[in-house]
Amino acid sequence: MKKSILNFKQMKSKGEKITWITAYSYPMAMAAEKAGIEMILVGDSGGMVELGYDTTNPVTMDEMIQLAKAARRGAPNTFIVGDMPQGSYEVSTEEAIRNAMRFVKEAGCDAIKLEGGVRVGDKVKAIVNAGIVVIGHLGLTPQSVASFGGYRVQGKTLESFEETVVDAVSLEKNGASLLLLEAMPSLSAEQISKRLKIPVLGIGAGELVDGQLIIMHDLTGFYPNFRPWFAKCYIPQVIDKYKDTLYPFKDNLKKFGIQLREDGLLSIVQLAIKEYIDEVKTINFPSEDYNYPIKIEELLSIKESKYWI
To answer: Where are the alpha helices (DSSP H) in the chain?
Structure first.
């Protein structure tokens, strides 16, 4: 059964981890739903991993809608989030509402995600007032990466930590129902999760938040151009774990494939997603190997913040 924002808030209160993955196509969304994922993000990262752009910035609303439509057809019973691409919400609240509504009406999304905190507060509030669920995105926000001077970990300095807290509180105040933190040390991210009533999920933000997001093409190793420090490919783990049981009818693979259609890559992807879900639920992912370190002097400085709980 499809989960709702209310379910996710209840999971946070109970300490149950929420599982989230990107998907931009019918088969990948189908695999995610069959594996039991709770949320799917049709991310603007699809512009890179599916459409071949060098960054997320060129992807358009029309392209995002097509990717979202495909994902919805593949996962009709999963909570799906449409990612507002750069240029789709910054100009005005009216344009932000119009494009957010496209995700809902044309692609059947359950929510939208956008980047930024205080600076997009009016857009968040307007979209929420239009009856659309909004998810915020802070930390390393790829659409604004140039303003960071490149892909840099956030929340490691007192200034960066406090700016993120202020942005996070602003998003919650303006009606955001969930927050994604990207590329932050786990203790910094934990502080934000503690401060907010809404669920806080992480991608490269450690294991101390309320759930995890992973990029499908990182999990499967389908994108060779770049892989972040925090990304784990689960394919080697799955192949090793299931090498003796993956194809139970290997003596008649044609019949096995025709009857069950579990003889190809899709079945391996589904097992990989299940491994990811299990590791998130049991707090085995992200492990220390997939967390960003923080120096003791940086941590001591951040702990002096008025926002440290």
So the answer is: 5-14, 26-35, 46-49, 61-74, 93-107, 121-129, 158-173, 186-195, 216-219, 235-242, 253-260, 265-281, 296-302
